[in-house]
Amino acid sequence: MDKIKLQGFIGKENLTISEVMQKIDQNANGILFIVDDEQKLIACITDGDIRRYLLAGGKMDGDAIAASNRHPVYAKAIEQARTLYHKRNYIAIPVLDEKGELIDVYTGEKGLLKKQHDHLGMPVVINAGGKGTRLDPYTRVIPKPLIPVGDLPIIELIMKEYQTYGCEDFSIIVNYKKELIKAYFSDNEKNYNINWYDEKKPLGTGGGLSLLRGKMNNTFFFVNCDALLTSNYERIVRFHKENKNVITMVCVYKNINIPYGVVEIGTDGIIENMKEKPLFSFLTNTGIYLVEPEVLDAVNDNEAIGFPDIIERERQKGKKVAVFPVGESDWMDMGQLSELEKMRIKLYGE
Description:
CATH class of the largest domain: Alpha Beta
Helix content: 25-40%
Distance between the termini: 21 Å
Shape: globular
Largest sheet: 7 strands, mixed
Strand content: 25-35%
CATH superfamily of the largest domain: Spore Coat Polysaccharide Biosynthesis Protein SpsA, Chain A
Low-confidence stretches: 111-115
Number of domains: 2
Number of strands: 18
C-alpha cells in the first residue's frame, strides 16, 4: 500500500468520534488504526465500534479512544497479514515493523471472491410511486425509479443489492408513470419476482402500505426507490430482532463543516461564544426501514401519509421504534441531481 493511501487508515489518539467517522468514510474500509506520536499502533476502531458506542449513549464529540479496541490483531509481515485476513472475517490487518510502528495495511486483494452474505430471504417492499420532483426535469419524461445510474436504473440496483442477501420477493408500490416502470420489468431479461400494488391517488411515503395489509406475514424491508445501502444487512436485522423493534429506521451520520467562524450573541450584541469552522453532526433518515407486519394494520385505506408519521403513531402507542446508525460512506442517495454523478462514480469508478 502506498504512503498516501496508508495515511487514510491512520489517526491520532486525540480524535473525536465525529473526526474518526469522517476518516473511515474517506478510506471506505470501515476501520481506522490509532497510533501515538511515534506511529506505534495503540488501538483500532471500526464503524461497528462507533455504532455500539453511540447506541450506548456516547456522543459524537466524545474521545474515539473510548470506543476503540486496545488489543487489535496485527501482523509482522504482509504474508502473515494475508493469512490472518483470510482465516477470519477481518476488515483489515495492520502490519508493524520491529518497533511496533504501523508500516502497511492489508485489505484483501482484487479478483478474489467477495465474502458471502448470510441468506436473509426477507421480503422487500419498494415505494416507487412518487413524482420525484427533486429530479425535475428528468422525471417529467422518465419516472425516478428508472433513472439510470451507470448501466442500470436505480430501482434495479437496489433490488440486486437485496438479492445478494437472498431477498428475492419484491412488492413495488407504483403510481406516477407506473406503466413505464412495469413495462421495463416485463421486458427485462432478468425474471424478478414482483408483486405490483397500484395507488389510485398519491398516498405519500407511507400510505401505499395499506395496499399490502394482510399480505405480509413476516418482518420486511421497506425502502424508498432513490437510496442504495451498502452496509451489512445482517447486522441491521439482528439489531431489529434482538431489540424486538416494530420499526427500525436506518440512519446515517452526516458531518457538515461550516467554513466560517460562527458567532453566538446575546442582548445588545454581546458575544457569548465563538467557534472557528465548527463541525456539526446529525442523524439523517435514509428512507430504509425494517418493519413488522402489525404496523400495516395502523395504515388506513386511501390515507395519504408519510412513513415518519406512521413511525410517530407507533411511538405514541408505546411500541418500540429505534435507529440503526450507519456510516456516511454506506449510503448513496440519488434524490437530488447533484448526487447522481457521485453515486455513479462510487459504483462504477471514474
